Amino acid sequence: MLHPLIADPHATRHILKKFKLRAVKSLGQNFLIDPLVVEKIVAAAEISAGEDVLEIGPGIGTLTQGLLEAGANVTAVELDKKLPAVLKETLAGYKNFRLVEGDILKINLSELMPQKFKVAANLPYYITTQILLTLLEKKLPVTKIVTMVQKEVAERMTAAPGSKIYGALSLAVQFRSQPSIAFEVSPESFLPSPEVTSAVVVCDVRRPPEIDEEFFFKVVRTAFAQRRKTLLNSLACFGKEKLLASGIDVKRRAETLSLEEFAALCKFLKG
Ligand code: SAM
C-alpha cells in the first residue's frame, strides 16, 4: 500500500483541517512538516527492520510514518485524546504500529517495553527534562534515545566541564549515556513554528559508574545549588575535613568537575 507523506506542510494542514484540529500549545504541539528532518531523525536512530521503537507523542503520525517505513515496530504513547482517531486514518495499513493512549510520565514503561528498544521522539518541550530523566533513570532496556529538544537544552545535555551551562542536567544525562548533538532544526520545519531553534540529540545509553546513585546526585545537586561557591563551601554539609582530605582541590567550583571526579569525590565522602 502506498501511503501519502505526512511530513509536508500541505498534508499537515489538510489533516488538521479535516479533523477540525488546532495545535494545542499547552501540550507542546509543534508538528514536523519537513521530510528531510524526519529522514535524518530515522537515520540518527539507526533503525533496522524489526526493531522495537518507543515514540513519545506521535501527534498526527509524521515521525511515526518515517519509523514505520524504516521497518521499526513502533509503540507510540499519546496524551491528546483527539489524536487516536487521526492516527487511525493517517497510519492505516501499517501493521507494526501500536498506539497507547496516556501520559508518558505516568505509564509503566517496564511493562510496556520489556525487550530491548530505542526511543525516537519530537518531544513536547514543556516536559523534556522529566521525560529524559524518566527514560534514563528507570533502568529500562533502552539502548538509544534520539530526541528533538530545544537547542538550549541540547547544549546543556551535552555540555562539558568548565562550560557555563554544564550542570546537574548534563551530569544526569551523561551518567547513563553518551549524548551528542546530531543536527539543528530551524523553527520553519514545524507547524506552528516554535519560538526557539531545536536540535536532535542522540543519547547512546551506557552502563553507569558503579556508585551509590542517590548519593551521587545528592552531592551534584548540592554542589550546583551554589555553583559560584568553592566546593569547600558548597559541600560543607558533607564535612569540611573529609573534603580537605579527598584529594580534590576544594577551591575548585562544581562546574569544573568531570563526572569521574564527582564519582571519585562521592566514593571518598561515603567511605
Ligand atoms: N511527533 C509529532 C511530530 O513530530 O509532528 C508531534 C510532536 S509534538 C512536538 C509533541 C507531541 O507530544 C504532541 O502530539 C502532544 O500531544 C504529545 N504529548 C504532550 N504531552 C504528552 C505526554 N505527557 N505524554 C504523551 N504525549 C504527550
Quick recap of the structure?
The protein has helices at 9-18, 35-44, 62-69, 83-90, 109-112, 128-137, 151-158, 168-176, 213-225, 231-234, 240-245, 259-270; strands spanning 31-32, 52-56, 73-78, 97-101, 117-122, 142-150, 177-185, 190-191, 198-205.
Tell me what you see in this structure:
- With 271 residues, this protein is α/β, with parallel strands linked by helices.
- It folds into 2 domains: 9-205, Vaccinia Virus protein VP39 (Rossmann fold, 3-Layer(aba) Sandwich); 213-270, Helicase, Ruva Protein, domain 3 (Orthogonal Bundle).
- The chain has 12 helices and 9 strands.
- Strands 4-3-2-5-6-9-7 form a 7-stranded mixed beta sheet, with helices on both faces. A two-stranded antiparallel ribbon has the order 1-8.
- Helix 2 (35-44) crosses helix 3, helix 6 (128-137) runs parallel beside helix 8 (168-176) and helix 9 crosses helix 12 (259-270).
- Bound molecules: S-adenosylmethionine (SAM).
Keywords:
binds S-adenosylmethionine, Rossmann fold, elongated, Helicase, Ruva Protein, domain 3, alpha/beta, 38% helix, 9 strands, 12 helices, single chain, seven-stranded mixed β-sheet, two-stranded antiparallel sheet
